[in-house]
Amino acid sequence: MTTARPATPAPPSVPPSQRVSQARVVRSEWTKLRSQPSTAWSLLVTVVSIVGFGVLYCLLRVARPPDNPASLATFDPTAVSLTGVQLAAIAVGVLGVLLVAGEYATGLIRTSFTAVPRRLPVLWGKAVVFALTTLVVCLPVTVVAFLVGQSILSEKHLDIALGHPGVARAVLGSALYLVAIGLLGLGLGALLRSTAGAVAALLGLLFGPQLLVGLLPASLSDQLYRYLPVPAGAAVANVRPDPVILSPWTGFGLFCCYTGLVLGLAAWRLGRGDA
Amino acid sequence: MIEARGLTKRYGDKLAVDDLTFAVRPGVVTGFLGPNGAGKSTTMRMILGLDVPTRGSVTVNGRPYRDHAAPLREVGALLDARSVHPARSARNHLLALAQTSGIPRSRVDEVVEAVGLASVARKRAGGFSLGMGQRLGIAAALLGDPGTVILDEPVNGLDTEGIRWIRSLLRDLAAEGRTVFVSSHLMSEMAMTAQHLIVIGRGRLIADSGTEELIARAAPGVVRVRSTDPEALAALLRSRDVTVSRDGEGALAVSGLSTDEVGRAAGAAGITLLELTAQQASLEEAFVDMTRDAVEFRAPSQKGAQP
Question: What pLDDT is stored for residue A220 in this prediction?
């Protein structure tokens, strides 16, 4: 303020202790996340899906082990024990959607934006809190699912060690993949501002492209398949080299780009126009 | 201090707010009055930086709301009492808000106590009645001890005790030198609460003046007088500024004179008065008259109805 305003005294400069900051918005978003029951429920579903389906599928494979060398060669014990991750992805993604679209549904978003009128810190605050929470919950759970799964598979000597090349990366990568799916849901929720619309878009993005590409001639579909969101993202959990899909970190990186694109569009829409 | 200059908001081809210019000053309660759909909420959202004006601008304490580093400490707002996560407790709702601006937990407990929600602060806000929701919204508005308070229809859903509480709260806030801006579609409510009124209809400014002045202008008083000789009295009182009409029971309705003036005139002429009453035209009627051409939603009236 360089010009004096006789009618309105210039607002006194605000001491840092009272300013809105990104760190404070993160704290606020943590309070919101932990104080809504849907968080606990979604994460419980996530945990049960990862461990439960992993155990179930491992028991199934032990009951019907691969019976010829060809199927034994393609048998991936890591993937078998982490089967539940694909189902958990839906729970995490939907929770991501709810975190933002839910605030639009109740009108709470307006209150949030009157407290943080620059708006974007709210989106980033939600993203940081949700990503960390998902990682902290999902990483131990994927490790447990892997270990329990391998102990089941060991009965028929189908198991693999965590120290085997690529296995630890697959376990960690599965947790990271869930975090990225959650952020994709969060971005869709912020972009579309409607729970139903964003959940539909999320499921569409996760499952739709594979269905569409499947309609194309095989030569073309094999080319495109690897770049689709789920095949790209799930590549990070792949232990056996597979020519049809991208290498683990390349695939996951591509998935993160998709998520980043959606979050970027959401931020662009959030920053301008009416709340 | 809230200042709007040429504030305009267009949604598609509908002009919700049309070139509003006004100032809301500190120290008094300013009522923001208009029929439903007049653009009150839209204007308030623009003040709070939630909606972007199509044209014009609005500032709070000299700068746009978005440019305030600590907005909750500058402006407290209640827009919609149902804007809470239904499963979150009132206390956590307020705590999350407080944390954005480094407002301490103790202040959360303070405002919860002040609005009378202490006993239910840990219960899910979704189970609150509309009145309790309004109290929670007001608690949120007071959280940062702001110099400006903006409340959209705060008495909606409140019982008589709650309405009295709001009235005295608003007056106290204004008496402390704060800027208090309160919307309502009820003129009678505003007449009791606000010292200054800004009236809009169809997004346009209709009036911006002191409440008493506005009432005097919009709803001029009528003196009802019965006498032993109404004909003579009517002839006596009638002048360029005074209209006299007879009602069915032989009483006269005199506008333009006070009861004192009618009584003195009658006394001087030796006419015996049987009744002399000052009658205030209904505020709601005056408000309806004032905004008649600016009502958006109206049931078809006898004369306006199309076959």
Answer: 87
**Rounded distance, CA A36 to CA A74, Å?**
43
pLDDT for A78:
93
Task: Return the beta strands (E) in chain B as ranges.
Answer: 2-11, 14-24, 29-33, 55-60, 75-78, 148-152, 179-184, 196-201, 204-210, 222-227, 243-246, 252-255, 273-279
User: What is the distance in angstroms between the Cα of B147 and the nearest Cα belonging to chain A?
Assistant: 11
How many domains does the structure of chain B reveal?
Answer: 2
* Alpha carbon distance A118, B180 (integer Å): 24
- The answer to whether residues B146 and B261 belong to one domain is no
pTM of the model: 0.86
| DSSP conformational letter for B272 | P
Test mutation, A41, A114, A116, chain B, max B CBs within 10 A? A114
B107 and B246 share one domain: no
CB contact under 8 Å between A35 and B79, yes or no, is no
Which CATH number characterizes residue B227's domain? 3.30.70
Mutate to test the interface with B, among A111, A116, A126, A269 (most CBs of B within 10 A): A111
Interface touch B100/A35, C-beta < 8 Å:
no
Would an 8 Å CB–CB cutoff place B105 in contact with chain A?
no
| Distant-in-sequence, close-in-space partners of A208: CB < 8 Å, separation ≥ 6 | none
Contact by Cβ (8 Å): B132, B165: no
Same domain, B18 and B154: yes
- Do the domain assignments include residue B182? yes
Give how far A121 is from chain B: nearest CA, Å. Answer: 10
- Out of B83, B89, B102, the one facing A110 most closely (by C-beta) is B83
B152 chain-A contacts, CB cut-off 8 A: none
Which ranges of chain A would DSSP assign to H, the alpha helix? Answer: 22-34, 37-63, 69-74, 77-81, 84-106, 108-115, 120-153, 167-192, 195-214, 218-225, 229-234, 248-271
The complex's ipTM works out to 0.88
pLDDT tens sequence across A24-55: 999 999 999 999 999 999 999 999 999 999 99
Sign of CA dihedral B161, B163, B166, B171: negative
* Cβ partners under 8 Å of residue B73, min gap 6: A14, A18, B101, B103, B144, B145, B146
> Residues with Cβ < 8 Å from B144, sequence gap 6 or more?
B70, B71, B72, B73, B74, B76, B101, B103
User: A140: which 2 tokens?
Assistant: 């131990």
Residue B169, domain extent: 2-217
Give the CATH number for residue B98.
3.40.50.300
